[in-house]
Amino acid sequence: PCPRCPMASPAAAGPGAALPAGAGTARRDFYWLRSFIAGGVAGCCAKTTTAPLDRVKILLQAHNHHYKHLGVFSTLCAVPKKEGYLGLYKGNGAMMIRIFPYGAIQFMAFDQYKKVAEFIFLFFYFFFSFYLAYMGIIHAFKMIYTKEGGFSGFYRGLMPTVVGMAPYAGFSFFTFGTLKSIGLAQAPNLLGRPSLDNPDVLVLKTHVNLLCGGIAGAIAQTISYPLDVTRRRMQLGAVLPDSDKCLTMVQTLKYVYQQHGIRRGLYRGLSLNYIRCIPSQAVAFTTYELMKQFLHLN
Question: What are the distances in angstroms from CA 42 to CA 15, 104, 143, 196?
Fold first, then answer.
């Protein structure tokens, strides 16, 4: 066919045809941006899916006086009665501001650097975690600065965040990547299918992606959960009556263990976390894999 003919395209010629001059460069130029967007969308979809469970988890971890005598499902029912159904989504706006760059950089870094760039998004992950006891982001900034020691108040819980992020993100991505590799290697026809944007690339079927993501989230949360409890209590220190006992990571870990033990302290709310993290991570990994195909990242 004539090279000037619009029908003479690489798509019409098949997956093995050469791209026009400059086409590959154009795709590479926007690869980082597309990968960033894919990760951000995946993170936001995952967190929105489980926002009510996140709210209940934080209330249980902080031993909120309105709900501390209740269990997981009792709290889920009590919050709408006391605060309305929007109470289950309280702070979700700030959560999206935090999660989009967190998820975007996390997934992009995993694909490109295998976690070398992970600490870049620590600030985003930590900074926008202050939302439980405030009316909004601006109000939270003012209250934290005036009542929690100026700028140092914004960094309460930084150490357990740093320490806890490595096992959580590491085990999550490692488990998902391992399950994906084993599944495609051992049962490609049963578990895999050609990618929508590149038939030469094999990807997991959607329901298999959901399963692998859920397993990865459950394992990662089990390992890092005590540090998550520690981080939350340190961040909410100003609104808790025992805030003077939770000034450092080690001090907080000891205090929670001595006062409440392992099951009711360090792992309080873990059953809820299993319910929360399995769909959250399942949606995150599955959305990211679909976004990679939609944005031609394969």
Answer: 28, 8, 31, 18
